[in-house]
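Minutes, project check-in

Agenda point 3 was the complex the collaborators sent over. CS summarized: two entities, 259 residues total, and the question is how they sit relative to each other. Sequences were read into the notes so everyone works from the same version.
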Amino acid sequence: MSESDPQITLYRLQACPFCERVVRVLDALDLDYESRFVEPMHSDRNVVKRVSGKRSVPAIVDETTGVTMSESANIVEYLEHTYDDGGAA
Amino acid sequence: MDLGFEVTDLPASDHPEPGDVAPDFTRPLVAPEYWADASLSAVVAEGPTLLVFHPMDGAFPTTYMWNAIDDHGFAADVQLIGVSVSSPYEHTDLLDERAADARLFSDPDAGVAAAYGVENHLDGMAGVTEHRPAVFLLDSDRTVEYAWVADEWPAFPDYEAVAAAIDAHA
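CS then shared the predicted structure for the full assembly.
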């Protein structure tokens, strides 16, 4: 909504442990992100399907790198690889 | 309403009046597909906004208010933003049924109601404070152009007055 909006958007489900795992890594890396909460019912997650191709959460969109990604293990690996040594090149 | 008996009065409210700048706040803002924290100031920056405080989702005044707002087609001229104590899950259900093109803030502790002076401490629901029906037309810097706050329980907005205010300002 403004120029200072975070570059990373996290689609998440309240209390989803896979999502919380990603949140811990985002926080550990001191990354700014916007949380978008979606519905528990898979069929009600069209927005996630539209952005990521699947209805699973967590999913992130990183405007800085143009990366969109699902699956917490993949996301954690991506975040640590991209941001764990001084930020994106 | 002419019911032939007295309707319960609500205490006088100290709410923002036309010309005042409406208090800013940040709460989860629920759209049909997801919710995310948003500030009122960021929302109104997108254009003239009708800020509608209403009782908890499911209460008949809430249903009546959104049905009337839908019927008047206000969404064509202003952003429709609701506020109630209901959770984002309940707001999602409300948006499935009515409040076309609206987005709804979730304010479970009624802190926004306190900031706007529109609290309603519910009789018979211990510990529950919600928002009394209220409508504020805001321009893009949160200046109040029109304000109405219920002084009876229940009371409903004068939708023709709201429409006139929208015509005049939005």
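Noted in discussion: Chain A has a mean pLDDT of 92.
Follow-up: revisit at the next meeting once the mutant set is ready.
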